[in-house]
Design a protein that fits this description.
Number of domains: 2
Oligomer: single chain
Helix content: 25-40%
Number of strands: 12
Largest sheet: 12 strands, mixed
Mean pLDDT: 88
Shape: globular
Strand order of the largest sheet: 1-2-3-4-5-12-6-11-10-9-8-7
CATH class of the largest domain: Alpha Beta
CATH superfamily of the largest domain: Gcn5-related N-acetyltransferase (GNAT)
Number of helices: 11
Strand content: 25-35%
CATH architecture of the largest domain: 3-Layer(aba) Sandwich
Distance between the termini: 43 Å
Length: about 300
Amino acid sequence: MTNPTMRNAQAMLISSPKDSHPPSALDSARLEPLDDGHKEEVLRFLGTRPVYTFIMSSWIRDNGLASSLNRGTFYGCRNAQGQLDGVALIGHTTLFETESNTALAAFARLTKTCPSAHVVLGRAERVDRFLGYYMHGPVKPRMVCYELLFQKNLSANVETVTSLRPATSEELELVVPIHALTAFEESGLNPLERDPAGFRERCARRIQQGRVWLAIENGKLKFKADVVSETPEVVYLEGVYVDPVHRGNGYGSRCMTQLTNHLLERTKSVCLLVNQSNWAAQVCYRKAGFEFHEYYDTIYLHQQIVN
């Protein structure tokens, strides 16, 4: 297992992979935008490693392959036999799944030409290599978050938090500022300043889908968590918030345990990402039954307009 300190030092010196493909190799990659006619094939490809592809798989199930709700475009890369060698969502959130360096280099090149590309998320080793192809030299992204993927597979006994439930549409105004706060704490950018209408619309849609869970006591929001993606194999949580008054007293872990117990009734595992320097959150999640599974990187790019 990589030592976190060593991992930080290595990540600061990311450079082009020694085996980078020349332009001719990239040009030979068979790239194509994907639409709903490819849905079965793509889900089958992503289904071979569900713990690493849960976000893409869920968004495809929710929105289809060609939808503005994905905030980007799905691409496939095929090998010489015409089989899928990689799948990526290139856009606001860039995600990819491939074991092929040729496909990874092609996806990095597409991301570089995408003016809306904001964040790249994935397994640490894959993201490091992606960035080497993306920049072909020393990398200076706007911000790097070194994270741990935590996973929970089994339910556990817990003292019930009676106020924990799905949010309602009438509670949108309560949810929006808290969700914006968690986004700001993670990315350093306030979505209510950058895209207030779009952000509120996305929050409202997630509430309508029944994917925002909260606990309100005496009119104050004490706990919140969002189901960002859901498949029969994996549910992915994000935007977890615990009121500062209740941090460190077990309230957050009780809410998380109760929520994940409920989710595990319809999925095989529940995952979330936690910053490797956020020891308090890690303790909370471990108390709720989560265990470390994989190192992840979240890379925030400098968005730029392509001429």
